[in-house]
Amino acid sequence: MRLYMLYLGTMHPGDIPVPGYLIQTSDGINILVDTGWPRSFVDKTVNLPGLTVEIRPEDTVTARLNAIGVSPADISYLICTHLDEDHSGNHDLFSNAELIIQKEHYELAKSGHPRFKVNRESWDHPSLRYRLIEGDYELLPGVVLLETSGHVPGHQSLLVRLSDTGTVLLAADAVMHHSMADAATRQIFVTDMDDEAGIRRSTQKIADIAGSENAAFVVYGHDTEQWVSLRLSPAFYE
Prior knowledge:
By secondary structure, this protein is α/β, with parallel strands linked by helices. The chain has helices at about 60-65, 105-110, 120-125, 195-210, 225-230, and strands at about 1-10, 15-25, 30-35, 45-50, 50-55, 75-80, 100, 130-135, 135-140, 145, 155-160, 165-170, 215-220.
């Protein structure tokens, strides 16, 4: 099995990475995790409250996949960690895939919650097929979805077991930066929706699983310093 780290753009200030991931199983199944900001942002400066988004043509999810010989039609599963606009901007491109999402999160977004309206045309496209799950869930051998509500209700992270590297945890926005890895001292941000106890509980869950699995490393969702050190696609971990 291979794990590709997809760099899908940069947020400023702070050169903050926008992440995506591709997991390729040994029998040729492609599992995409998140799709980044909308492709309409390419090659134009997008200024949001307190944030500037920069996406080069090579940063689009389709360009990153094409660079490793994968097309949107080749994706069997699209894992939705959550539907914030920097994670769900291009879901509509993956109509061949089955989208996997926590039931709690999907129902919250479908109810019309304003936080998830921005990309609704993408993630709620009529061509898309969703599988709604509840709690931790083994999608395939070596690929486990972890319910990590906190940043948003029904957020999910991933555990990936690789033969050479070992276990890797993709925390996504459950733990956005290595400085937030300690549940007791983790900073709570205005973008964290849930109650503080839930946020700290999910942060601790990531730490506990990393320990019990003797994980090789945890990938934090938007960690500028860590992403500079990672092996980014077209390179991979296996």
